[in-house]
Amino acid sequence: MPQAIEPVGEPEFLSGEGQEFDLHRWQRTRIVKQELKQKMTTNRRRFLSGALATSGLAAISGAFPAQPIVLNAEPSRGAKFVDVHVHITQEWNERGELTARSLIRWMDAGEIEQAWVLPLISPEAWFYPITTEFVLEQTRQFRERLIPFCIIDPRTDVFGGRKHFVDLLGRYKDAGARGFGEHKWGGAVDDPRNIELMRSCAEVELPVLFHLDNIRNTDTPGLPGLERLLKAVPEVTLIGHGPGWWASISGTVSQADLGGYPTGDVAPGGALDRLLGEYPNLFADLSAGSGHNAIRRDLEFGHAFLQRNADKILFGTDYLAEKQEVKQFDLLRAMKLPNDVQDKIFRVNARKLMGDV
Ligand SMILES: [Zn+2]
Asked: Model pTM?
């Protein structure tokens, strides 16, 4: 009986308007996905069997051989990725809690050696705050694997302006924070308050991971606001993410595109190529639907873009809930980038930004 081909992932994966569907590539992608799924199932079984053994239920389970839980505090050998964009969440999240332990289990299954754990506190960022303090606390036991970031909203009422921002950021850094973000505030990317905060991040030497769309860190087509910020604070390290950032891969982009997931061929001359080329301290985070879409919408362009900007692109997922589908693994592996490019994007660039290389 011929096997039915099931669609993988969200509809956009198959049916981008005006896109030619590349079946061969898609099938290869699907095989990689199945392998990953199998691996995750094996991993889950191992965990389950360990959990049962610990609780004395192994004898009646019968299904799996009893094995101890191995929750690596050290990076596993042969690990391939550093994920620059994940969140841990609390139990009132509608998709359930994602603890540091379950995050590490997922990382082990996906060959992720380290992840940057990002708080979210601006009212526009998410529906409840994930504070810096929470992230620092939850990652404390796993700092070899989980790298905590910190966050402040530019509207924070500080006394004495930058001096107090610097003081607060310095305290977070002393407590273990190694970067700033996810910066997702509801204002213009070049708002004077944001420029002041970015200056403070530069002073404390914390790289900034920001989300750009039509609500947060807003800008206009071509990203002139971001360029003003880059010129105003040339010493800050900025890592771009989000729909507005990734829509700007294309030379033709509308204001509405900055808040969405535009499909179809990418026109050359986009703001990303230009800005990544001109500003040594600007980087790109491939996470989430926006990062995936930007590369997937035009595979030819995407492949060349990743190679052109190999020193500036960082692997990321935006993983924040159990069983969340992450398309970046399949897409990037299926693209078969040259090994040196892959190494840079998958982990080396991220390690460099953390001063670990
Ligand atoms: Zn995020």
From this structure: 0.79
Could you tell me the distance, in angstroms and rounded to a whole number, from the CA of residue 181 to the centre of ligand 1?
9
Using DSSP's 3-state secondary structure scheme, residue 92 falls into coil
Distance from residue 60's CA to the centre of ligand 1 (Å): 41
Separation of CA 63 and ligand 1 centre (Å):
37
d(CA 180, CA 89): 18
Q: Give, as residue ranges, everything with CB less than 5 Å from ion ligand 1.
A: 182, 318
Which SS3 state, helix, strand or coil, does residue 16 take? coil
Q: Which residue spans within the chain are E strands per DSSP?
A: 81-86, 112-117, 146-148, 180-183, 208-211, 238-241, 282-285, 313-314
pLDDT tens, residue by residue, 247-273: 999 999 999 999 999 999 999 999 999
In CATH, what is the architecture of 80-353?
Alpha-Beta Barrel (3.20)
Task: Identify the segments of the chain with pLDDT beneath 70.
Answer: 1-79, 93
The per-residue b/e assignment along 35-67, b for 16 or more CB within 10 angstroms, e otherwise, is ebeeebeebeebbebbebbeeeebeeeeeeeee
* Ramachandran assignment for 23, one of left (phi > 0), alpha (psi -120 to 50 degrees), beta (any other): alpha
**Confidence at residue 127, expressed as pLDDT on a 0 to 100 scale:** 86
